[in-house]
Amino acid sequence: xxxxxVLRQRRMVRNFEARPVPADLVQRVLDAGRRAPxxxxxxxxxLLVLEGAQxxxxxxxxxxxxxxxxxxxxHAGLKRAPVVVLPLAGPGAYVRRYSExxxxxxxxxxxxxxxxxxxxxxxxxxxxxxxxxxxxAGLGALFMGIFRGEQELLAQLGVPEGLRPIGAxxxxxxxxxxxxxxxxxxxxxxxxxxxxxxxxx
Length: 201
Hints:
This protein is an alpha+beta fold. 37% of the residues lie in helices and 12% in strands.
């Protein structure tokens, strides 16, 4: 599929079929995430993959409550996603990399020296690469935030200190769903988004 078509088709899916995704397609998506840009080639983003109801159930059990599901019955199809990927980010790999001789002069060998925490940027790059690979593979995906239970989830999954998920990427076969009401806002005109030469309000 042409990149322009992948970009045009990419959307967030909020309803999934229960059928599993073949291992080769899952690997194809994960490989795309591994090839995302990385500051100093630090490669600090890590992907924790949960497959099947037993493993993804750990994610849902830690991050949601029965009351939440009762309040949001339209989201029941999220639980059917057979794959949940947690993109993990933390400063450790970046501080170590920028302490090496070829990067030491940058002054980025301390966490507080980074004007922007690139570990989050790189993890987001990885998510975007996977979102595009999902479309190319004929699958659907949803990136969602983790608003409760993060520490419980990390403890259950054995994630070491210093890493945290920037969210969760649900992957599976898309089922019919309602477009997000947010889409009614429309896409901002090019002239409001792209500023050439200087910022123009």
